[in-house]
Each structure stands twice: as C-alpha cells, then as structure tokens.
Amino acid sequence: METPAPLASQLLAEARAALHGAPTEGLGEERESRWRGHRIVKIGRVWHLGVLLLTDTHALATAEVLRAADPGRRGYTAESARERAARRALALRGGFDEGEVAHVGWTVIDVDAVDAGGASGPLAVVDGVPSVRWSTAGGWMPLETYLRERVELLRG
Question: What CA–CA distance (Å, rounded) separates 65 from 38?
Fold first, then answer.
C-alpha cells in the first residue's frame, strides 16, 4: 500500500523548523493616515522562499518586493522608475531601514484548503501531492522538493 503524501501544513511546519535562525526579511503593509500620510509600515518578519513567504504562523504568497531607499533627486528616463523610487521611499518613511527588503501586497494562503485537496495562492494538490506553482509560466512542482531546495538556498 502506498504511503499518502504529507499534508502541506506538515511540510510548511517542517520548513519553519529548519529555518530557525536563518535570515528573515521585512513584511510590510501600506497604511494611510491624516497625520502620518501614505507609507509602508513594517508589521513583521518573514522567510522569503521564492513565491512563498513564511511567518511563524502563516504561509503567504509573495507579491511586490522592494528595498527601502531615499529617492533622492534623480532624473528618471521612465515613469516606472520614478514610481519604483516612490514606493521605496514609502517603505523608508514607514520605518524600514535604508536598504532593507520590504514585502508588500502579499496574500495569506489558506493552507487548510490545500490540505483538504483544494488550492490557494500558488499552492494546490496535484495528483494527490501538495504542489507549488513556482512561476506564472511554470508548471507545478512538489511542495516538498521546492521547500527543501529553497530552505537549503536560504540557509546557505
């Protein structure tokens, strides 16, 4: 009889345990207030594993990744470059240190739905195996293999 594949929640818990002491990056959230204006505030720390972000309690889908920076006075050849500089400045204004990575726009992955055989964010059960879509153009990869590779890379 074949052994059933481990649940996504179990694989993510094992990854968290293996990542203990590994470098983390900042988790940010956009905020707007009358007194402090528009900014990206630091709300926690995450382990960045490609398309996944792991906190001590949640799995998140990666979205925008930026480095906090002062936009300075530069001439931009493209409007997109000006917009990226403005986004980096929002993180700096929100409390990220100069050069610190900020993950913004992330979404929470419903790991229970994946464990039940469904899908959430980049995770799904494919042919009975918890899997991850590691790029929008890429196919599915077993989550266990993906996490093992990413944890090894992050631990260096």
Answer: 18
DSSP-assigned letters across all residues of 14-41:
HHHHHHTTS--EEEEEEEEETTTEEEEE
Q: Which of 114, 123, 156, 117 is nearest to 142 (CA)?
A: 123
38 token code pair = 């528009």
One-letter amino acid at 80 equals S
Euclidean distance between CA atoms 4 and 54, whole angstroms = 24
Cα separation, 108 vs 68, whole angstroms = 23
| 8 Å CB contact between 145 and 153 | no
CB 106 within 8 A of CB 53: yes
| Residue 132 confidence class, pLDDT cut points 50, 70, 90 | very high
Domain residue ranges in the chain: 8-155
- Percent helix, strand, coil in the chain, to 5, is 30, 35, 40
pLDDT (0 to 100) of residue 44: 97
Strand, coil or helix: 142:
strand
> Rounded CA gap, 29 and 122, in Å?
20
